[in-house]
Write a structure and sequence with these properties.
The complex is a heterodimer of chains A (about 350) and B (about 525).
Chain A (H helix, E strand, L loop, with lengths): L2 H8 L8 H24 L1 H27 L3 H32 L4 H9 L5 H5 L3 H8 L4 H8 L2 H14 L2 H10 L5 H32 L2 H16 L5 H16 L6 H18 L2 H5 L1 H11 L1 H17 L4 H12 L6 H8 L12
Helix pairs in contact in A: 2-3, 3-4, 5-19, 8-9, 9-10, 9-11, 10-11, 11-12, 12-13, 12-14, 13-14, 14-16, 14-17, 16-17, 17-18
Chain B lengths: L4 E8 L8 H11 L6 E9 L15 E10 L10 H4 L6 H5 L2 H13 L3 H8 L11 H5 L2 H14 L5 H20 L5 E6 L3 H14 L3 E5 L3 H11 L19 H20 L2 E4 L2 H9 L8 E2 L6 H7 L12 E6 L8 H14 L3 E6 L6 H13 L6 E5 L3 H4 L5 E4 L8 H8 L4 E4 L4 H6 L3 H4 L5 E4 L4 H13 L1 H18 L2 H16 L1 H4 L14
Parallel strand pairs in B: 1-2, 1-4, 2-3, 4-5, 5-6, 6-7, 8-9, 8-11, 9-10, 11-12, 12-13
Classes of the chains: A mainly alpha (about 350), B alpha/beta (about 525).
């Protein structure tokens, strides 16, 4: 190699940037990003992997495009490529951090947290009041059964009425009551017959247990009967005013016994709490504080249900403190907390609206 | 052998063996037209029921009573098992004569085609074959092949066993009706569609006699309700359920059967009548030709009822508020809601008394349950079941009449209460709304004769009763409005006059030719 050639080569002016080639590289990078987005949209490990691969390759192609166009220094181009690569990471980090900070800025109200977790489900209290149509409207967006009952054709609604009747949960019965407003008389009758059947089945159970209780007259038979009354009251097959008659029957039976056996005592406690809570009788519920403490001493596992029920009653009356007490007691006994209770325990403190002191 | 009657009334599960609103209507229809003779053609559920005794004293112008059963006695003899019946040779020759009927029935059931059955019934060259056991016909090799073909075409994805038994169970009653001897009459009048409608239509086509239909409750609607709730419909066990199978296939089959029979009746009827306007909408929905259904409302003997209620006096302030229920103690009347409403009235109207008056034999188990419910609610002393009573005796003694039925057509008892000037609280079913509030402007102008409440709502019933109990002026005004409404629109005289005219048309020489028209209801529609 001649020196001239060598020097000439060394001192040769920088290559003229080729705009055409750079544009091609940039276009390629853009295409890769689009493909990556498509792959990410498909989802799954393969999709996300392909998306990540496409993104890295596109960043590399952008670097080549930049170099081809401007002849910028290698370090400048590396920085640019890293920024391009890192943009999604920054986005993910922001997405991760922002709601958490907002969350802590707007601490969840304890009562709201409870309602959010439990949503009023299985609450006899909520079933004894409130507007069924409003309940229906409130659920339209999240459950298809309500939507089908409102907008489905006659056959669809007929099938659904049969399904709801077969399933027979309290929330199914609530929906069947809504069908009594349906424009089709046939459907109204079918829904009513389903409700009547559900009530009849429970009444037959009560009749059988009443006979048994009159023969045995034991604490267990009384509790079984009381639970059957409670079940009928909470099944949403009765008019609220009649449900109160059943609740009072359940409460009366539960009050009539003073069980010595811890398991039976705990059952009776839970039953009285349930019935008192459904009747909205806070005074009655307050009486259980001492019983519950006794139960814990007997058998923490058995008492857990009763304690949780008590805490639930308190938070329904917008009093957080008993929940915290119960949570502490359960934790101390080495027992787990229900999700809603954890949520309430984490929520910001608030002033009680109504005092239900244990 | 009975003489040829002017009118053969075709009746299913009603007069003269069962008491109720429709039965009372039939009884008056016969009794108030002594110039005409009637033959009663009654459809019983089972062969064993044919030995029943009428619960009504039959008027002298009833010249005959025939009973046909939908189901025969099931033999326990293994010789009569399906496998044995399907052996070739057994009664095959006699059974084969009924194969055209089977083929025509399957066309009606699966395709809704009426023409093949009409053709069979009207064939002048065909002599009615000797009746045989319908099962022999349905398991005849030719029927079997036809059924297999149907299965392959209609429901290859369904259980064959279910298909076979549903076919046997659904085709047997119509086939028995097609085999029953026809009473001689100049015209046929059915009081429902369904099996009675099919029987009347068959008689009309075979004898070229005119026919009328008066539909009280809409038969197809009632059967749809039953079938949609029924647990006897053959369905696959859930474990073998496949997504592509239709879970409602066999329910649909039964509903189709009753719809087909109703449409067959509508098409065959020279006069298609019902008792209130709401029914005409349902009839058209179920296939009655547009413009055909006519309304002849129920009516009551206003003079007689007013005379017996003349002794009614305004209630004294300290007198108990007497709530009356008059009707059968049957699930459709929803007595439980009535009792529940009484329990709710305890606080607001403690001096209220409920009298439940009507037969308790139709569903003894239900009646027993209602009595237990009364005790459970602690209504002893405030409510009582009194059994069957004489209307004329009790109407003067009640302050309000209540009806908590979940289904009704045009309840006579509301008209009777209206005629007696008694306000009513009734559920919003059938014609109750128009009986209480009026239908036309002229009718509505008379004012409400009581309150209408939703079904299954003890609270609404109790509230309406409390309003009447606590407001004697309102009670009186509503009673008067009801009285005026019945006097103006619902008299027995106008009802009987309307039927006299219908029968006159059917029995006239021109009417005698109506039955020979193959499809009077849907001329040119097929």
């Amino acid at each position: 190699m001649s020196p001239t050639q060598s020097e000439g080569a060394a001192k040769a002016p920088p290559q003229t940037p080729s705009m055409g080639r750079a544009a091609l590289w940039a276009l390629g990078a853009l295409g890769l990003e689009v493909l990556g987005l498509g792959a990410a949209y498909l989802g799954g490990p393969l999709g996300y992997g392909a998306a990540a691969g496409a993104h890295i390759t596109a960043a590399w192609a952008s670097r080549i495009a930049g170099r081809t166009r401007s002849g910028a220094s290698r370090s400048e181009l590396d920085v640019a490529m890293l920024v391009a690569l890192g943009i999604p990471v920054v986005g993910i980090a922001l997405a991760w951090l922002l709601p958490r900070s907002l969350n802590s800025a707007q601490a969840v109200d304890a009562h709201e947290a409870f309602e959010e977790k439990r949503g009023g489900e299985n609450s006899a209290e909520s079933g004894l009041s409130g507007n069924r149509s409003d309940d229906l409207r409130g659920r339209l967006d999240v459950e298809s059964d309500e939507h089908a009952l409102r907008y489905g054709d006659t056959q669809r609604r007929t099938d659904l009425v049969r399904k709801l009747g077969d399933r027979g949960r309290p929330q199914d019965h609530e929906l069947l009551w809504c069908v009594l407003d349906d424009q089709e008389e046939e459907l109204r009758i079918q829904a009513f017959q389903r409700l009547r059947q559900a009530r009849r089945n429970r009444q037959e159970t009560i009749e059988a247990l009443t006979s048994r209780h009159s023969e045995e007259s034991s604490e267990t038979s009384a509790l079984d009967l009381a639970e059957a009354h409670l079940d009928l009251a909470k099944s949403k097959v009765l008019d609220p005013a009649l449900a109160r008659i059943e609740l009072n029957a359940a409460l009366g039976l539960a009050r009539s016994i003073e069980p010595a056996d811890p398991k039976t005592a705990s059952r009776a406690c839970a039953l009285r709490l349930d019935a008192a809570s459904a009747l909205g009788s806070t005074g009655e519920a307050a009486l259980f504080a001492s019983d519950l403490r006794l139960d814990l001493r007997f058998d923490p596992l058995q008492a857990k249900y009763a304690l949780v029920a008590w805490a639930e009653l308190a938070i329904r009356h917008k009093n957080k403190q008993p929940v915290l007490d119960v949570a502490a007691r359960l934790v101390a006994a080495g027992l787990g907390l229900p999700a809603w209770m954890e949520e309430v325990a984490r929520a910001r403190p608030q002033a009680p609206l109504e005092s239900v002191a244990p | 052998m009975s003489p040829v009657a002017d009118i053969c009334l075709v009746l299913e599960g009603t007069y003269p063996f069962v008491m109720g609103g429709v039965s009372a209507w039939v009884h008056h229809l016969i009794q108030d037209q002594p110039n005409l003779t009637f033959h009663l053609w009654y459809i019983a559920a089972n062969e064993g029921d044919t030995a029943m005794e009428p619960v009504y004293e039959l008027p002298p112008n009833v010249v005959g009573l025939s009973v046909v059963a939908l189901h025969g006695k099931r033999s326990e003899d293994p010789k009569h098992s399906i496998a044995n019946l399907m052996r070739p040779g057994r009664s095959a020759r006699a059974a084969s004569k009924w194969l055209p009927e089977v083929a025509a029935l399957s066309e009606l059931l699966f395709r809704g085609h009426q023409a093949p059955l009409i053709e069979v019934l009207q064939n002048p060259n065909r002599k009615a074959p000797r009746p045989v056991d319908p099962l022999d016909v349905l398991v005849h090799p030719e029927s079997w092949e036809a059924m297999l073909d149907l299965y392959r075409k209609e429901a290859p994805h369904e259980s064959f066993a279910n298909f076979f038994w549903t076919w046997i169970n659904s085709a047997t009653p119509p086939l028995r009706l097609l085999m029953a001897p026809i009473p001689e009459a100049r015209a046929y009048h059915t009081v429902s569609t369904g099996y009675a409608g099919l029987l009347a239509a068959r008689a009309s086509y075979e004898r070229s006699a005119p026919m009328a239909l008066t539909e009280h409750g809409i038969y197809t609607k009632e059967r749809r309700i039953d079938i949609n709730q029924a647990d006897w419909i053959l369905e696959r066990p859930r474990l073998t359920e496949l997504a592509e199978r239709d879970p409602a296939y066999f329910r649909g089959w039964w509903i189709r059967l009753f719809q087909a029979m109703s449409q067959f009746t509508y098409a065959a009827s020279d006069r298609l009548l019902t008792i209130h306007h709401g029914n005409t909408v349902l009839q058209r929905k179920d296939g009655a030709p547009e413009g055909r259904p006519e309304v002849i409302p129920n009516g009551v003997d206003v003079t007689k009822i007013m005379a017996c209620a003349a002794g009614r006096k305004p209630r004294a302030v300290d007198a108990p508020f007497v709530i009356g229920f008059i009707g059968r103690v049957a699930p459709i009347k929803d007595i439980e809601t009535l009792l529940d409403s009484m329990a709710l009235l305890s606080d607001t109207v403690p001096h209220s008394r409920l009298r439940i008056m009507g037969p308790m034999s139709e569903d003894a188990e239900y009646a027993e349950r209602c009595q237990a419910h009364l005790q459970w609610l602690g209504l002893d002393g405030r409510a009582a079941f009194e059994g069957t009573v004489k209307l004329v005796d009790v109407l003067p003694e009640i302050d309000v009449l209540v009806l908590t039925s979940i289904s009704e057509a045009q309840p006579l008892v509301l008209l009777e209460a209206g005629a007696a000037g008694i306000p009513v609280v009734a559920t919003n079913v059938g014609a109750c709304h128009e009986l209480v509030h009026g239908r036309t402007d002229e009718d509505k102008a008379l004012g409400p004769g009581g309150f209408v409440t939703p079904i299954g709502s003890p609270r609404a019933t109790a509230e309406a009763l409390a309003r009447l109990a606590n407001d004697p002026k309102l009670c009186q005004a509503m009673g008067k409005a009801g009285e005026a409404r019945v006097q103006r629109f619902y008299t027995q005289t106008s009802m009987i006059d309307a039927y006299r005219s219908v029968y006159g048309e059917l029995l006239s020489p021109a009417g005698a030719g109506l039955g020979s028209d193959p499809l009077p209801g849907i001329r040119g529609a097929l």
